[in-house]
Amino acid sequence: MNMLGKIVLVTGATRGIGEAIAQRLKGAGAQLIVTGRDPERLRAWESQGALAKAADVTDATQVDELVEEIVTRFGGLDVVVNNAGITQDRLLMRMGDDDWQKVIDTNLTGVFHVCRAAIRPMLKKRQGKIVNISSVIGVTGNAGQTNYAASKAGVIGFSKALAKEVASRNILVNVVAPGYIETDMTQVLTAEQKSEIMRLIPLGRTGQREDVASLVHFLVSPENGYITGQTIHCDGGLVI
Ligand code: NDP
After folding, report:
1. Which residue stretches of the chain have pLDDT < 70?
2. Which of 30, 32, 69, 117 could make an S-S bridge to 50, C-beta 3.0–4.6 Å?
3. Cα 15 to ligand 1 centroid, rounded to whole Å
């Protein structure tokens, strides 16, 4: 699964799953471009030889400028991992317009912005691999997460349509749907919520960031030449 010479963009790589994905792909030899908003973590990435940018995925102009810079500096873009995402949980009765819009803008419109900009250089090269990070919640739903579930289900539909649109140019688009992964995002759950989820995981353990990173690595590596338009769960069997 050698990534030597591959130009790889990972969004939301300052923490959590995105950071683990970026570390793994860098370890496999990729020229890495990472985004996020935390300036300190971006500087840490720069010191490791990555191009690190504070591009906000909700802002189409910032995303377009980032992809332009990548193409100018590195001559193309081979792989994109759309990982940046947020939650803003509330029961629907109490959900404000802002709770709804922020989550849709980041998790769904952000994926649209990045994919729209990235497929241009990929179409030119007639090759590319995209992995969009959804969630099992986009498949099953969850009380208190109508905004998040809608955004993550949207990512699955979006990715299927895009996979069909660009398949003839050898661009593969897949979705990874993680279950419960230990990150800042899941730190906010109460002990009671965590033990309830644990009860439902057949493999009997929570997921680690590396569990997702290794799956993403395979999907974007030269080893994957024939899987596209799929949603692959990485959830210890939570959704079977
Ligand atoms: P974290 O909260 O740990 O990290 C989120 C990352 O996204 C950070 O690097 C953050 O950057 C970045 N980010 C957020 N908003 C933006 C934005 N507007 N523009 C650019 N970057 C942004 O989350 P996880 O690592 O847990 O989650 C990563 C992905 O996996 C998300 O899409 C999430 O929905 C999904 N997922 C996670 C699960 C889990 O159990 N943890 C389960 C299922 C799906 P910064 O901090 O610099 O702002």
Report:
1. none
2. 32
3. 7
